[in-house]
Every structure is written in structure tokens, then in C-alpha cells.
Design brief:
The protein has one helix and four strands. It is elongated, with a radius of gyration of 23 Å.
């Protein structure tokens, strides 16, 4: 059997399970593509935020409607959102 705490929780015939749900919110911000790289300069287009050109799951969803660049050229911002209040009894 597991640790001492697990044996005590099983003594009354019920077991509580706690599940932690972590939702990660990913947003793509300004475009960082260097449009002048071929001539030795540095210039970005000024696109402030990625907007998908098509529906989720299609190839067009990876292209920005504002600047036409692939999503990978946009700065990725990750925000973890933890919902630690989720418990299940059973």
C-alpha cells in the first residue's frame, strides 16, 4: 500500500482524488520577421498581433491575415492558468 495518508483515507471506504488541471494559454503577438534580410538590412512590418487567416485545423490557420507571415514569425507568449480547486470524490 502507499504512504500512511493513503491508508487512513481508505479506512472509511471512500477515497478522494485530487486532480490539478493546468490550462496553458498561448498567444502570438507582434511579427518579428525581418523583411530586409535579403539586402542586409533590418525591417519588420509592424503587425501587432497574429490573426489566423482560416479556421482552426486548416493550413490557412497558420498564416497571419494582417501580414501574411507564418505564425512562427510572431512572438509567442505563454500564460499558464492553473485551476487548482478541481476535486473528485469517488
Amino acid at each position: 500500500m502507499g504512504p500512511q495518508q493513503d491508508r487512513r483515507s481508505m479506512a472509511n471506504g471512500t477515497r478522494k482524488e485530487t486532480k490539478v488541471v493546468v490550462v496553458v494559454v498561448v498567444q502570438y503577438r507582434e511579427c518579428q520577421r525581418n523583411h530586409a534580410a535579403s539586402i542586409g538590412g533590418y525591417a519588420v512590418d509592424g503587425c501587432r498581433e497574429f490573426m489566423a487567416s482560416g479556421a482552426e485545423g486548416t493550413a490557412a490557420a497558420l498564416l497571419c491575415a494582417a501580414c501574411g507571415c507564418h505564425r512562427s514569425f510572431h512572438r509567442r507568449e505563454v500564460e499558464p492558468d492553473c485551476d487548482c480547486s478541481s476535486t473528485t470524490s469517488g
